[in-house]
Write a structure and sequence with these properties.
heterodimer, A: alpha/beta, 5-stranded parallel sheet, B: mainly alpha, 2 domains, 20 helices
Chain lengths: 473, 494
């Protein structure tokens, strides 16, 4: 009996240990960059958003819950996954309805344009992201009927281990330490890039395309599922590069929605009305950026105000996580701007506007104090420190760490539980005067070096040098 | 149903659980059903072959025991040997024989013959055919009694842990244990722990070492035209590791699985690369097959009792047949022949080597002397493995030629070695695995027991840590799952 108990204890330890290993290896990405709407939904807990967006990457790029919160106090959540297909959409909603009871579900129609995934990564994102449960098993089984690459490896998808175990080759920090963005965000993929000139035109009138039985059944099932769970469905299409047949399918879905009394918004056709500018509002031909998402939000906010009575949850402690989401939005926004900014005046302005950035400012070598008047706004007067110095800017407070005196003891500080700062002065333009972890952010040749640490998202945002080049290069 | 597959991970716990909780009388029926199910998971039709072999040898045993008449017994034995070997020949060697015949016909510009059959080699046929023939010969010799209970005998032939790739068991060992299944108390904590440890170690060898190094070996052997000295050396050394980890890994799983059910299977490997001569290598490598050939071929041929020349002829016969047993290609015959030649040359040059050592005053007890012998034996075995892997005399010779003639040491420094199937991380895991294999082999060599039994002698915490470590290594580093075209165990082909 005693030996039997040993076996049981060993089995329990093994199970717990493998659970921990699984947690490290498991798939953690629905958007790319380790962002996961599934994790973010879990982090939201049992506080129900009023509006849920569900769909493909078009949705996580084009619908920012932070906007709805900031403008109208609407608690929205974005449950998009890259290339979300119909089965994934249906079962993700089923999963969501287990814990959430939104009043409105806004469903992306992009999944009507394809039956099977083109990219392996999107299969993984859609079929390895939900927690392992009855719904996720049904989800992958349903999709396997359409995609033979999945049906061939169905057991692997059901068990997951055979797929995810190879991730030991690609593990990164977020596999061990949860990414703060997944704690703060509400499913949006924040992006201020405008990488391509989107050559967009509103589609013309195309011959209608008949939806397949499977597609019609999905429209029916997904509407029914929403209504059974007390949510109204709303169909939408966010702007993407439509082919003739794709637009025909969207038009057919619009007709279906009209017959069923379901609101339908095709932003391929409405982009002009919304004021979406192809030159500024896309980060590629198929995805809106933050500016485009703002226009979609404004459109919906107006529509919601006219047709729904969503309460304003701002100030409600239960909904404080939406405040976090807004904080996260601004943190990323200012972070993005800081990364792009090369002008010192503007850089300092941005720094002053942010609460959660920590900066180390290092002034060395020969410099003309007049060039650095911008620093006075942070509390540094270069005219008063001709030998330069090193300062810490944190939570709006400035601290002198070293007046470029080699005798001053080195300064160390844990920026958070993951990163440590070391500041010292060995000599002008010497290596290792400013270190975060083991990375060197010392002045390389210019008089002013600033390194910014994102204290909210726990990463080094940028190290930048300004001013006169004294390196002699 | 491969051992390293999800179906087996479901199958085995169910088999073992029911095996222990069901009434003792039913156990043998349950194991027989499980064994046939296991075999039929490859191809249900081939169950007829194993059934035929079982019925034929069972009947022959009964017939031989019924009469004392030696001539009659000999005729029965000859008949059952012919029947079984005919079956083996048909499925394994028919196409090979036909292609050779066609080659001869081609020389005389005669029309080639087409095979009327489309044959797939039934998995494990070489193993269970030899196992059941061994039984028939034992009965003929009177070293064992003929088995009366057909169920017991069928279970002896088909016992699933060792059914498809050995160890090739002797009736004296396994059949007697089968007969005890209904009688004795089977539950044995030590057996469970030791067997579990063996299985884990087997999975580690197969999935973390053999299937990982296979990626390097396959790349090298699929690009023989492009390899230089160091790629060839890495490929040859890699295959020596791969085939050992693969086959010894399978045997460890088989022995462990059987041990968990209260059975003791014979040892199949005993640190073969620690051997100091080729003869010793074969006493350590695939022991159950070497023993089979020794008892049922070499000794009946006269062994070493009829003079030196006849002994050498017998050695060559045994190794050529052994080569052919491994595969229906001349390269396997050549591989077997090489091992035979190694032994003969070794014996012939022994006096000369003795004189040389006396002249040089070699300390034959020194570590370096033993190490040198081990290395030389491993190199000779590795050289022969090249033909085994290429399965072609021409490619084998090309491989060796490139190994000698394309010397480019720069490849050791330009990181190009990491483009031969294994990147830096994978090489690191492989090196760790091989070092662990070396350590476990040392324990085997010094302590004289396998890892399962050795772990039993260790403290609970250490044992559990080893188990957890092996489990983690297998489930994380093991080569399996999507995008992995699982190489089945190499010896399944034989």
């Amino acid at each position: 009996m005693k030996k039997g108990i040993r076996i049981v204890i060993f089995a329990v330890i093994t199970a717990l240990w493998l659970g921990r290993v699984y947690d490290v290896l498991r798939w953690k990405d629905t958007h790319g960059d380790y962002l996961s709407s599934v994790t973010q939904l879990k982090e939201t807990g049992d506080v129900t958003p009023d509006v849920v967006f569900v769909g493909s990457s078009h949705v996580y790029a084009g619908c920012y819950p932070a906007y709805f919160w900031e403008d109208a106090g609407i608690a929205a959540f974005n449950t998009a996954i890259s290339g979300m297909d119909r089965d994934s959409c249906y079962y993700y909603l089923k999963y969501l309805f287990r814990s959430q009871h939104p009043k409105l579900v806004v469903i992306d129609m992009f999944c009507l344009t394809f039956d099977v995934h083109e990219y392996q990564g999107n299969i993984y994102r859609n079929y390895l992201s939900l927690p392992l449960n009855r719904d996720s098993l049904a989800q992958v089984s349903a999709y396997a009927e359409k995609d033979e690459t999945v049906s061939e490896d169905l057991a692997d998808y059901l068990v997951r281990w055979p797929i995810i175990h190879t991730r030991y080759r690609e593990l990164q920090r977020p596999d061990f330490i949860p990414d703060e963005a997944n704690h703060l965000g509400k499913g949006e993929y924040l992006n201020w890039e405008n990488l391509q000139q989107a050559k967009k035109q509103e589609p013309g009138d195309f011959a209608p395309v008949q939806l397949s039985e499977d597609q019609l059944k999905w429209l029916e099932d997904v509407s029914k599922l929403c209504r059974e769970n007390g949510a109204e469905p709303l169909f939408m299409v966010l702007p993407f590069e439509t082919l003739r047949d794709d637009q025909g399918r969207m038009d057919a879905a619009a007709r279906y929605a009209q017959e069923q009394g379901i609101p339908f918004f095709d932003f391929n056709r409405l982009s002009g009305e919304c004021g979406i500018d192809p030159d500024t509002d896309y980060f590629d031909n198929n995805h809106l950026n933050a500016l485009g998402a703002k226009k979609i939000a404004l459109f919906f906010e107006e529509y919601f105000a006219e047709n729904y009575e969503f309460p304003d949850h701002r100030g409600d402690a239960a909904y404080s996580s939406w405040d976090d989401d807004l904080r996260y939005y601004y943190q990323r926004k200012y972070g993005d701007a800081l990364k792009k900014e090369t002008d010192l005046d503007n850089f300092v302005d941005l720094l002053l506007q942010t609460k959660d950035m920590t900066a180390v400012i290092s002034l060395e070598g020969e410099f003309d104090a007049e060039e650095y008047t911008a620093l006075q706004r942070l509390g540094i007067d270069p005219a008063l420190c001709p030998g330069g110095g090193k300062w810490l800017w944190s939570e709006g407070q400035l601290t002198l760490l070293n007046a470029n005196d080699p005798a001053t003891p080195e300064y160390t500080k844990d920026l958070d539980e993951y990163s440590s700062l070391l500041v010292r002065y060995v000599g002008d333009y010497s290596a290792n005067n400013v270190l975060i972890d083991r990375r060197d952010y010392s002045n390389k040749g210019k008089a002013l070096a600033i390194v910014v640490y994102d204290s909210l998202l726990h990463n080094i945002l940028i190290g930048r040098e300004f001013g006169r080049d004294n390196s002699g290069n | 149903m491969l051992f390293n597959s999800l179906p087996f991970l479901i199958f085995f716990p169910i088999v073992i659980l029911l095996y222990y909780i069901m009434p003792a009388k039913l156990r043998r029926f349950w194991l027989l059903a499980a064994s046939y199910f296991f075999y039929m998971s490859w191809n249900p039709a081939y169950v007829l072959l194993i059934l035929f072999s079982t019925v034929a040898t069972y009947t022959a045993g009964r017939l031989m025991e019924r009469r004392e008449d030696k001539a009659y017994r000999k005729r029965v034995l000859a008949a059952v040997i012919i029947m079984n070997l005919a079956l083996l020949f048909f499925f394994k060697y028919f196409d090979f024989a036909l292609s050779n015949l066609n080659h001869v016909l081609g020389i005389f510009h005669l029309k080639k013959l087409e095979s009327p059959f489309s044959l797939l080699l039934p998995v494990g046929i070489s193993f269970y055919t030899f196992q059941s023939l061994g039984y028939a010969i034992d009965v003929y010799r009177g070293t064992v009694s003929a088995e009366k209970d057909f169920i017991d005998y069928a279970l002896f032939v088909s016992f699933f842990p060792q059914l498809v790739a050995g160890p090739i068991e002797r009736s004296k060992n396994l059949l007697s244990q089968v007969k005890e299944v209904s009688k004795r108390r089977l539950w044995n904590y030590d057996g469970m722990v030791s067997g579990f440890g063996m299985m884990l170690w087997g999975f580690f060898m197969k999935m973390c070492i053999a299937d990982r190094v296979a990626l390097l070996v396959d790349t090298v052997f699929n690009n023989i035209h492009a390899i230089g000295t160091f790629e060839a050396l890495a490929g040859a050394a890699g295959f020596s590791v791969q085939i050992y980890a693969d086959f010894a890994g399978y045997s460890a799983i088989a022995i462990g699985a059987a041990r968990m059910m209260g059975f003791t299977l014979m040892e199949n490997f005993n640190c073969p690369y620690f051997a100091e001569s080729i003869a010793e290598f074969w006493r350590r490598w695939h022991i159950s097959l070497s023993g089979w050939f020794r008892d049922y071929l070499y000794i009946p041929l006269g062994g070493n009792r009829k003079g030196k020349f006849r002994k050498y002829v017998n050695i060559m016969i045994v190794f050529l047949v052994s080569g052919l047993w491994h595969g229906s290609a001349w390269a396997f015959v050549l591989w077997g022949g090489l091992h035979g030649l190694y032994q003969i040359i070794g014996e012939l040059t022994l006096p000369l080597r003795d004189k040389l050592h006396e002249l040089l005053k070699t300390d034959r007890e020194s570590f370096s002397f033993h190490l040198g012998k081990k290395v030389l034996t491993a190199v000779l075995a590795g050289l022969a493995w090249i033909f085994f892997r290429t399965r072609s005399l021409r490619l084998g010779l090309l491989f060796i030629r490139r190994m000698i003639c394309h010397y480019d040491p720069w490849v050791l420094f330009d990181d190009s070695m990491y483009s031969w199937g294994l990147d830096f991380r994978e090489v690191g895991i492989l090196v760790f695995g091989v070092l662990l294999l070396f350590f476990v082999s040392l324990v085997r060599e010094k302590k004289g027991c396998d890892i399962g039994n050795w772990l039993l002698t260790q403290g609970l915490v250490f044992r559990w840590l080893v188990f957890l470590g092996l489990i983690t290594a297998v489930v994380v580093w093991g080569e399996y799952g999507i995008d992995f075209d699982s190489a089945q165990f190499i010896y399944f082909d034989f």
